[in-house]
Each structure stands twice: as C-alpha cells, then as structure tokens.
Amino acid sequence: MRDAAPQTIYLKDYAPFGFDVREVNLIFDLAPNATRVTSRIRFAAKPDAEHPDFFLHGEQLKLIRAAIDGQEITPTLTETGLTCDVPDGAFTFEAEVEIDPANNTALEGLYMSNGMYCTQCEAEGFRKITYYPDRPDVMSTFTVRVNGDLPVLLSNGNPTDSGEGFAEWHDPWPKPAYLFALVAGDLVAHSDHFTTVSGREVDLNLYVRPGDEGKCAFGMDALKRSMKWDEDVYGREYDLDVFNIVAVDDFNMGAMENKGLNVFNSSAVLASPETATDANFERIEAIIAHEYFHNWTGNRITCRDWFQLCLKEGLTVFRDAQFTSDVRSAPVKRIGDVIDLRARQFPEDNGPLAHPVRPESFQEINNFYTATVYEKGAEVIGMLKRLVGDQAYAEALDLYFARHDGQACTIEDWLKVFEDVTGRELSQFKLWYSQAGTPRVKVEEDWGDGTYSLTLSQSLPDSPGQVDKQPMHIPVAVGLLGPDGDEVRETQTLELTEARQTFRFDGLAAKPTASILREFSAPVILEHGVSRDAQAFLLAHDTDPFNRWSAARVLATETLIGMITDGKTPGGDYLDGVLSVLRNDDLDPAYRALMAGLPTQSELAGVLADRGLIPDPMAIWRASETLKQAMAQHAQDLLPRLHSQMRVDASYRPDAEQSGKRSLGSVVLSMTTRLDGGELAASEYAKSDNMTLQLSSLGALLRAGKGQEELAAFYDQWQADRLVIDKWFGLQVSLAEPDQTCAVAQKLTGHPDFHWKTPNRFRSVLGPLAMNHAGFHHGDGTSYALLADWLIRLDPVNPQTTARMCSAFQTWKRYDADRQALIRAQLERIAATPELSRDTTEMVSRILD
Ligand code: 0A1
Ligand code: ZN
Description:
The chain contains 27 helices and 31 strands. The chain is α+β, with helices and mostly antiparallel strands. Helix 3 runs antiparallel to helix 4, helix 5 crosses helix 6 and helix 15 packs antiparallel against helix 16.
C-alpha cells in the first residue's frame, strides 16, 4: 500500500490534543522540486493534561532538522508523523522540511498548477506541508514569510511587509491548519474594495492567470453582494483588511474558504457572457457566497473534529441558498435544490454509501464531503428554522456567534443554542444527525362531516450499520385547497413525531385537496395515497409554487412508469397541465421551464427500484424520449409565439430575469428541434452571441443527430479556452445515444486535449459517461469497464478525485443480475489494483458491501 494501512477513526474516540498552540511562524523558500518549509511553533501543555503525548502529523516530508527551544533533537518518525520528548510547560518546536510541489499530483498540500504554487489543506493536507497537530480543534495565529522569485506571493490574513522576492503575512484570527493557504505565481489582479458596515476598508482582489482578466467582473460583484448580504441578514462583518480570491485550473473541488485567501477552481469563478452559461453564472454566484459565508460559519466558528463537518457545511449551504433565494427567485431555487437533492443525495442515502449527516466513523475523511453532509445537512437546518420560526432562528444564530466565536464546536453546541433560545427539547430532532436514510412518509386521507383527516406514517429503511431506527421529528407543511382551487387552509406545519399520527381539519364546507410537504419542508419520500386527479388539480391550482411543480413531477413520473411497465401512452392530464402552465404568461419563465422538465432517467430507475421493480435503462430511455416527443407535439402551436416572447434583445445580463427567459427559450428550442429537424437550432447557433444560446442550440442539434459541422467549428473557436473546451467534451458524451456513449467517450479520451491529470478535464468526459444513464448502463458493460480503466489509471495520480467518482457505481444493486455481475467485476478489479489508495479502497469496499 502506498498509503499507511487504513485505520478506522471513530467519533466516540475523540480526545482533545494535550497542548495549546500559541503562535505559528512559517517561512517558505519556494522551489518546484525542493521547497523548504521552516516552522517555529510555540506550544504549551494544557494545564489539565498530565504529560500528554506529543505527536505531530506529517506525511511525505523530508525532515532536515528539528529543535526544541533551540536545541537540535532527533525525533521518532513514523509513516504518519513525528514524536519526541518535550519539556513541561511552554516550549518552541522548530523544524525544517523539504517538499516537492511539482510532483504533487494529488492536489493536496502544496502543489503546482501551470507554474503557480497553490495549497489545499482541508481536510488533512497541512501535514503534507510541515509537521503539525493537523486537527481542526487546534487553533492558532499564523505569521508567514514567502520567499520566491514570483510577482505575487500570498498567504492568509493581512500583508505586513513585502519586497523583491518576498512577502510577509500575519493572520490575527486563530485558525485550524486546514484553513492555511499559500499562493505564488505570475498572476494578475482584478481589484475592487468594500467598506464594511462599521467602516472598515477592505481591499478585494481576484487573482487570475494573464489572459483571464476579462472573466473576473461577475465574481467580484458577487463577492461584494455576498459581503453586504451577510451584514444585512446575519449581522456578520468581514474582519481583515484584504480578501483575496485566486483562480486555479487544477483543483479537486469547487472552492476552498481559506481565511482571507479563498482558492477557487477556475470553473467556479471565471465567467464572461461569451464563455459561460447562465447556469455557470448562477453557480459561481452561489460558490462565491458559500466560501465568503464560511468566514463566520466555518472559520470564526469551526469544527471540533471532522465528524462535525456538517456544522460548517450544512449551515453554509443553507446560508448560500438563502442568499440565492433572495437575489433570484426563491421557488426556482428551491425546486432546483430539490432536483439536485433527489439526484445526488437520495441515491446516496438509499444505497451502500448511506451515512448519517454526522458520520460516526471513517477511514478517509475526504470521502465524506458528500451530498448527505452538505445538502441534507442544509435541509436539517431548514427544518429547524421552520420548527422554531424565523424570529427564534435569528436569535439562536446571534447566540451561536456570540457564544462560540473563536471556538471549535460540535452539533451539540449548535443545538444547545436553539434549546436555550426556544426552551424546546431537541433530542428527537437530533436523530436527523445520527440516523442515515431517507424517511418514507405515507399519506392516508379521510373525509366526513366537515372534517378532513390526514394520517401520516413514517418509516426509515435500514442502512449500513443501522437497523430498527426510531421515528424522526418531521415538519410537514400542509395547506388545503377547496374544490374551486381557493386555499381554504393556509400553510401550517404539522409536526410528525410518532410512527403514525392523524391530524384533523374541522369546519370545512367540502372535501378539500391537500397540498402536502409544501416547499419540500423535509427531505423525505412521500408515498402518496393522493389520486392522479388530485395531482392534476394541484398542478392547475396549488398556491404553493413548489408543490405545483411537484404535482407536475409526480404526474410525469407516473406517466413514465405507466409507459415503461404497462406500455401505456402519455396521459392527457399531464400534457394538458404542463401546456397550460407553459402558456401562462403570468408565470416566471424560469419556473415554466422547470415545470416542463422530466424526472431524470436515473431518478426513474430509483423510483422503480423503490417499488420492487428492476429498472431497464433502455426502456426508461425510450419512454423519456417518447414523452418528450409527445410533449413537443402537444405544444406545437404554442412554440413559435413562446420562442419570440423569450427572445432577449437587451445586452446580456446573467440575472434571474434574462436567464429565466433564456431557460424557457431553450426548452422551446429543444421541443421545436424534435419537430423541425434542427432548422431553428441551426439558425440560433449561427447567430448566438452568448454561451448559453451557443451551447443550447448546439445541444439541440446534436440531439437531433445533426450539428457535426457546428461541433467542429465550436472546437476551432474555443480551442484556447480550457473551460469552454471542458463543455465541448462533456456535451458530446452526455448527448450520445445509448449505444454510442461508450464509443464517444472512449474516442474523446484519446483526444490530444484530454489532459486527464487535470480534474476538470477528467470529469468532463468520465462524469457525463456515468451520468448518461442508458449509455452507462448499456447491457454490454463496456461503459462500466471504460470508467473503471480510467479510475484505475487516475488513482495513483489523484486518489481524491478517483474516490469521489467511484460513486457512479453506488446504485448497482438496483439493476438486473447481469448488470450487477458486470459492475461487481469492475469494482473487484479496482479493489484488486496493487497499491490502491486508501481513498478508493474505502469507497469501493463500502460500495461492494
Ligand atoms: N470546504 C470547501 C470544500 C472543500 C473540501 C475539501 C477540499 O479538499 C479535500 C476542498 C474543498 C467548501 O465547502 O467549499
Ligand atoms: Zn463549504
């Protein structure tokens, strides 16, 4: 094994570190293959710890020299760190180590990307930079000197000195090592400034590679809006003189919230109308906000240990979603988030990788940056807010910041502020953090004598290591509609706390139609006893925009399942319902575009499996295609008018209004292309002057089996733009027909621009391969083998990205015996690879279990 033997770490074993760290001084002498890191760290044994063991993490370091209080020592080195005898009381530990950033392809620790030095320390990367207690509950101030012959030399905090070939930084806010950052390179700054509510002047810089200056304005604007929003809504002010963001091409994730020096995957910050789509702009805005909001929820208040990851991530996702809802459309944001939750979190929660929002054990923490920790973690906060109310939520957050500023906290600390503010007891609610799996809520209705009764029963399936779970505290938002569509009972939150509970609504003149789980008030699967007629009624009348969309989704799902399992033809109720929404000019175009969407093929496979059926990927694909065709024909007369209404004549803005129009315009274009063979799409492509339209028209053409000329022209036009070429790769794989998908992906992996060691490029081909449901699950198993080949190849280079992409196989037990055997063979082949990383070993063994 290249990694140290896998070891399971348990939450229950948490023990504090025996020493305080009072001050960290670091000097970096940069050199691509031999960077010297000199550290001086002031330690003091904690008053209550008797002769604690002194252990510092350290991996892949060459120790040159170590000393305590100026005396050279010879510490004991292990695969994972260093131990030595230390004096009682306070002492200074010094070390000089050598590291090799140019050969660090794992992108963890200090590495190089296009000649630029960059760090990624979360979760446990700092130990690849120097010896240190690399755990989030050890917090210290840092002073850093960077020596290097490069124009830009950055670290955390405020700049204190700089000159030819050096820069010094001091971060006055105690922080854990995972928030450390250093960047050095030939970069250019897009600069601006922000004045905080109390009058602090903050210099803002977005550092990019020369040539990318034209893609900075939107990210900078999003940053300033985020800073203002956090002051206005949460009362949180920025706390340094500078806020720097750096864009880097080689990055495993979206971005990283290092104190005062955020590092971003270039795809998560760089954008111009010509090169980025509306969806890219919206994602960038959300990620900028997310990383900025971490300054308080994550940095000022951090996590005691990595089991508490949801403390910062769930809360920060929740906060960035609030921001997006405020600056764009709240219903559109909520629907998008639920689509995403069902696509990514539900499969995780209902398969072999299921784990609680706060996991209780792990081998490799990097494998737990999951949709469950992030997105379900955010849902849990949304439920808490709904249960306590907006006012108490605001008071609890004020108390959280006041009580815990500067601390490394737990979920217990978080819930305690809510208990203290509200006087409520939250032990049952806390089960959301410890019980894995998506609760099922079954709905039964009764009506008589003016009383409508709703009986809700909950159950929580077994998941790895967890059986016989307890009932959860589930907020179910419900409203009632009368026969003419009027709301006869406003939304109220029912608190489902028992296995089965009945709620009564009295004094009704006629049997109502219930709109249940409004705004998706809890991350559960509703098992409706509600009829198809009632769903069609809700689709036409529901006053809750989320549930109106949800009714369309339920009808679409039932329509497709009827087509798949019984060969039915698409129902008129669904097609008519969607058509009337599409032609309703009073509704936001972005919302109308969502109403016309179908559940993904993978989601349908999940629904079928949930009902005890074996999904046939080809049958699902065919039904989806047939329904899209039927929808296009049904809407035929409306399409030309809608197309011209959605034309945007003003100059490009990536805001909600314009992007909503383009999004409905793109739906219209897809439908039209099914009817006109690509005529409109070709003309749209020819005149497109923004990436949203260019990509949607190219996509429509490819889907119609046309567009090869445009595809080649697109490549020629954008050859020099790495982010656009990622799109060019991805589009071809995601739109390939099922029996072509593997061949298309295989061919692209042979393209000279397929720089597979860059995670964005690797993901641009292999990601869509796994996401193209019918292509990936093609009966011959070639796509499984292709993905496995590439994962095996990537693992020694970049274990983190490899391990994350293994989750493509997590749903394997849904499928038929032949497909299961094919996937198992690939998983076993990966598992048997010599020297497989700890990351991938853990993922594959959990999936196979
Ligand atoms: N904390 C970052 C995400 C992040 C997590 C891990 C990383 O490397 C293993 C990198 C980034 C966020 O939530 O934005
Ligand atoms: Zn985060």
